[in-house]
Specification:
The protein is mainly beta and 209 residues long. It folds into 2 domains: 107 residues, Translation factors (Elongation Factor Tu (Ef-tu), domain 3, Beta Barrel), CATH 2.40.30.10; 64 residues, Double Stranded RNA Binding Domain (2-Layer Sandwich), CATH 3.30.160. The strands form 3 sheets. Strands 1-2-11-10-7-12 form a 6-stranded antiparallel β-barrel. A 4-stranded antiparallel sheet has the order 5-4-3-6.
Length: 209
């Protein structure tokens, strides 16, 4: 069974379990997705299924995208993503919905985090900053020393420093499915999901069970 979907983050809410405890839940409009291509070892060298999500005006797609979908007589789809699977049991044109997921199942959700712009070391990496007293006047939020002296005479790559924060691809792993609504194509997972409202996310079965 294909454990994969493309969806759109709707927002967060809360539901109550059997004990009356409020659970923070992210609601995702997951699918319906359509199989746009099936890759095999014989032809492509690996096995995968490509899904499409979000019908759109054909004018908003490139010529290559339209041609790729027209080959199989598919409607214009805005987002295409691949899902690795050992033995694809679907065919081009098949519809994939949230009914493939069950309550209590664990999933990994990948999205693009909110962009925060250029930020300092304290906000970006959680640095403690300099002392608030003992003579300092402008070093309270400074990142401090960036490296050694004449040896090696440079700053190593990967050094935690101020810079662009957010707007990167992030995967939240092992989120528990607590809501499956097949009629409205809704999937609810406990906890937060990367990105803002309306962001596109990819849902897969959890790699770490």
């Amino acid at each position: 069974m294909l454990k994969g979907l493309i969806g759109k983050k709707i927002g967060m809410t809360q539901i109550f379990d059997d004990a009356g405890v409020a659970l923070p839940v992210t609601v995702i409009e997951a699918g319906p997705c359509y199989v746009t291509q099936v890759r095999t070892h014989e032809v492509d060298g690996y096995s995968a299924v490509q899904l499409g999500f979000g019908e759109v005006n054909p004018k908003k797609l490139t010529g290559g995208q339209r041609g790729h979908l027209n080959v199989n007589d598919l409607s214009p789809l805005r987002f295409l993503r691949e899902f690795r699977i050992k033995s694809p049991e679907v065919e081009v044109g098949d519809k994939v919905t949230v009914e493939n997921f069950e309550l209590g199942e664990r999933v990994d959700i990948t999205g693009t985090s909110k962009g925060k712009g250029f930020q300092g070391g304290m906000k970006r990496h959680g640095f403690s900053g300099g002392p608030a007293t003992h003579g300092q006047s402008d070093r309270q939020r400074s990142p401090g020393s960036a490296g050694a002296g004449s040896t090696p005479g440079r700053v190593f790559k990967g050094k935690k420093m101020p810079g662009q924060m957010g707007n990167v691809r992030i995967t939240s792993q092992g989120l528990k499915v607590v809501l499956v609504d097949v009629e409205q194509n809704l999937l609810g997972v406990m906890g937060s999901v990367p990105g803002g409202k309306g962001g596109i996310v990819v849902i897969k079965g959890a790699r770490k069970q």
